[in-house]
Design a protein that fits this description.
Strand content of chain A: over 45%
Distance between the termini of chain B: 36 Å
Structural class of chain A: mainly beta
Order of helices and strands of chain A: EEEEEEEEEEE
Radius of gyration of chain B: 14 Å
Shape of chain A: globular
Largest sheet of chain A: 7 strands, mixed
Oligomer: heterodimer
Chain lengths: ~120, ~120
């Protein structure tokens, strides 16, 4: 399978614990995005990387959230001191920025986080 | 908060009928994309329309874009039960490399196609 993969698919944790999610993009894609989706809503942008550089972060991304893409390939999203409001589906997408500036984002299956 | 709004929020039709979903956005865009999401799954890219295009077709899908009204529509013709899913529009500003291509999603339309 050459699509975007995310692990784990499901995570249940207790409030106050730290969690880390991983995203493996399509291999030649240089851009990687993180979104969060709550039930009944559309996804909301969190952050994105071009290669290993984190170029933009949403105001939704509080200090408890950190994302990395150390070698410009896979990425991790860590949430520290989880809160019940963090319960959501976390989606990763990757794209290949074309010279004409339009990149189609391909999404992974998501990681569903439940904070008890 | 979401910039996009979709209409209707839910749509139920019979197999074989056409389904039309509308989307509005608030800022200028570089392109607009439509995605499909089956329950609890990731999003599947359906079609992209650039800001200088007015209509685009892909198989049973037809997308229109009216930048003067900041709106788009997705038409699915000859619907099938397998088309049952949530459909989202997503706009992208794409004003330059440093601004990225973050997608701003609408709240989605839940389409149910009854066999």
């Amino acid at each position: 399978d050459t699509g975007v993969s995310q692990n784990p698919r499901h995570k249940i944790t207790k409030r106050g614990q730290n969690v880390t999610f991983r995203c493996d993009p399509i291999s030649e894609h240089n851009r990687l995005y993180w979104y969060r989706q709550t039930l009944g809503q559309g996804p909301e942008f969190l952050t994105y990387f071009q290669n290993e550089a984190q170029l933009e972060k949403s105001r939704l991304l509080s200090d408890r959230f950190s994302a990395e893409r150390p070698k410009g390939s896979f990425s991790t999203l860590e949430i520290q001191r989880t809160e019940q409001g963090d319960s959501a589906m976390y989606l990763c997408a990757s794209s290949l920025l074309a010279t004409w500036g339009i990149d189609t984002q391909y999404f992974g299956p998501g990681t569903r986080l439940t904070v008890l | 908060s979401q910039q996009g709004e979709e209409d209707p929020q839910a749509l139920s039709i019979q197999e074989g009928e056409n389904a039309t979903m509308n989307c509005s956005y608030k800022t200028s865009i570089n392109n607009l994309q439509w995605y499909r999401q089956n329950s609890g799954r990731g999003l599947v890219h359906l079609i992209l329309i650039r800001s200088n295009e007015r209509e685009k077709h892909s198989g049973r899908l037809r997308v229109t874009l009216d930048t003067s009204k900041k709106s788009s529509s997705l038409l699915i013709t000859a619907s099938r039960a397998a088309d049952t899913a949530s459909y989202f529009c997503a706009s992208s500003g794409g004003l330059g490399e440093t601004s990225g291509s973050r997608l701003t999603f609408g709240e989605g339309t839940q389409l149910t196609v009854n066999p």
